[in-house]
Amino acid sequence: MPHPYPIREIARQSGLSEATVDRVLNERPGVRPSTAANVAQAIADLDRQRSQLRLGGRTFIVDLVMQTPDRFSAAVKAALEHELPMLRPAVVRSRFDLRETARPGELVKALDGIRHRGSMGVILKAPDEPEIVEAISRLHDSGIPVVTLVTDIPLSQRVAYVGIDNRAAGATAAYLIEHWLTANDDAILMALSRSAFRGEEEREMGFRTTMRERAAGRSLVEATDTDGLDSAVRDETVVILHEHPDITAVYSIGGGNGAILEAFAIVDRECRAFVAHDLDRDNLALIQARRITAVLHHDLRQDMRRACQVIMQANGALDGPIESIASQISVVTPYNIPTQPLY
Q1: Pairwise CA distance, residues 7 & 18, whole Å
Q2: In angstroms, rounded to a whole number, what is the distance separating the alpha carbons of residues 261 and 241?
Q3: Which of 214, 219, 275, 321 pairs as cysteine with 187 (C-beta 3.0–4.6 A)?
């Protein structure tokens, strides 16, 4: 049991004598397993309390930088602000740079600005572009940890990724849609917001791989580079639906789902199966109205809590290894919509 504490302190925490603690730590004979467990628990308690003492009174400035449609950034912002009071005794203050569209250079400028101002950490949703990777490296070299959110930038010097396993999410969508489609000649629209987002690319790869395994002959049609914005999504989808009259299902990887459904209405076609991502305000309304079939959702509040804890770990305020742990994917239908806040 490696530890940094004096035997007297462990004895006080465990309620055992110093001699008993000494026997446990030195693995001498005659110690009951329950006594050894009490000593181990005392050390764990001291570890946790030491972390709390380090946190007490500390203020962490965390920057949230996202390129994403407003409907999703609003959900993430609400989730983060809900979690901040739960992180006590630390005090966490957040700053926001939220953009629906941006060139890589604009995001680089934002990240470099954070580096010059100073920050305890950055939570980032951005495309996997070389300029972004270099900006993350500069933040890392300045002692500012970066946590990627929802879409990873794995070859950068980010300290961890927080979000779902995107390949598994794409595979789940393929499994569901293939079960719901009855005709073998039905085609599926895969709608991305921008292919430079690695998370969306991984969802697409998981979807394609699983669909090949389950229905190799089914046609998959891709739409991308709309940034998930409604007007662009609607216009692009109308064109694709005219070109592909066999499309009857949608896997929406990048959002704009109301606009996709508008496009189906414009061409007077039924959408037989529709799987979307994230239970934001738009998707909540659509699934309540039963206009989409299912939403692949994950707990954004848990993601925000985990991201903040990673930043605290990277700043030496919390113990434990820094790891990228995938969030649980929930399949939400009209029959199991969560009653708690959905952000």
Answers
A1: 6
A2: 11
A3: 219
Degrees, nearest 5: CA angle 54-59-65? 125
Distances (CA, A) of 153 to 78, 210, 329: 24, 24, 20
> What is the model's pLDDT at position 91?
79
Q: Do residues 330 and 300 touch, judged by C-beta distance below 8 A?
A: no
pLDDT digits (tens, 9 = 90+) for 103-140: 999 999 999 999 998 899 999 999 999 999 999 999 99
Residue 68 three-state SS: coil
Q: H or E element: which one contains 102?
A: none
Q: Please give the structure tokens belonging to residue 41.
A: 């628990």
Distance between CA atoms of residues 14 and 3, nearest Å: 14
Instruction: Using CB atoms within 10 Å of the CB of residue 193, give its burial: 0 to 12 exposed, 13 to 18 middle, 19+ buried.
Output: buried
Nearest to 77 by CA among 266, 216, 281: 281
E-state strands within the chain: 59-67, 91-99, 121-125, 146-149, 160-164, 187-191, 220-223, 247-252, 273-277, 294-297, 326-327, 330-332
Show the domains of the chain with their CATH numbers. Answer: 60-163+301-322 (3.40.50.2300), 166-297 (3.40.50.2300)
User: Is the sign of the CA dihedral 54, 162, 194, 80 positive or negative?
Assistant: negative
For the full predicted model, state whether its pTM sits above 0.70: yes
* Cβ atoms of residues 203 and 166 within 8 Å: yes
Instruction: Spell out where 45-177 has E strands.
Output: 59-67, 91-99, 121-125, 146-149, 160-164
